[in-house]
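Hey, weird one. I pasted the GGDEF domain-containing protein sequence into the form twice and got a warning about non-standard characters only the second time. First submission, copied straight from the form history:
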Amino acid sequence: MTTGGEVDQLLDTLCPMHVRLDPAGHIRRTGPTLRKLRPVAALHGHRFLDVFELGRPRAVTSMQQLMQRSGTKLHLRFRTAPATGLKGVIVPLSPGQGAVVDLSFGISVLDAVRDYDLTSADFPATDLTIEMLYLVEAKSAAMEASRRLNLRLQGAMIAAEEQAYTDTLTGLKNRRAMDFLLDRLIAEGSRFALMHLDLDFFKGINDTMGHAAGDHVLRHVARIMAEESRESDCVARVGGDEFVLIFRQLTDRARLEEVASRLIARIGQPIIYQGRLCRVAASIGMVVAPRTGTPDAGRLMHQADLALYAAKHAGRGTHRFYRPEMSGDPGSTVA
């Protein structure tokens, strides 16, 4: 003979969302999953139709009418928030014993799993919901793996792009990056100035002290240029000991001369490498993008080169602005 406790255990296993009602329609016991949805005090002792709002069948307004709907699919929801939608079926027990209502989530199961933190243990072992939860979990795992892979790919792409625009020895931008920025500034119609800096006496460092010493000097000079420029500016290594600095929205000649003078003074200080002194100097040619018209990047670079050569001819370790007479070009660049 099956005891009441055994019946309850059986219902908990097979119907973890069941509700056991007394003949008057009051809730006397609930399954373990239903108890996760609402605290015991909110269910036990309350009338079933006070806890749940019946959507279908619409004609049912009393417990007696509900009892007569044995085997009919019920559409109902909690009257209190969250008003989770439920499906159910009522099965009357022996006369005077009340009834059992077996509930399920139907298509709202995913919302319920999220709202109540349910797991596969909250459903009957044969419920298709378990299979669906496994699929959802697998999908979530796949999406998370895809998200992480995308992040890694994006990081790799960013790193590759950064590497493509970076001089590996000095960490400065390279010629490709300089060309890109120069073209963009021209396309935007921005005002800017351009400096072409070349190291004097650098070949002697490589010849007498070796390329490791030369690399040390280049990195030291690169740090100086980075410190003397703004974050919005571009400092690029465009050759062995040649550099180009592009100053955004800086066209005042006096300020540019100050920057050039500081660069020449700092670069001219002795650089120590393995206890030995390395000495180089810097010559700088400068040009300012014109106020009117569309500048030509190649022409600006050529004009900066001419100004650089003029600085070298003036004795090295100095700077010069481009002037039309340097090339006999009547289309002068005027700041």
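That's the output from the first submission. The warning seems to come from a hidden character in my clipboard, not from the data itself. The mean pLDDT is 83.
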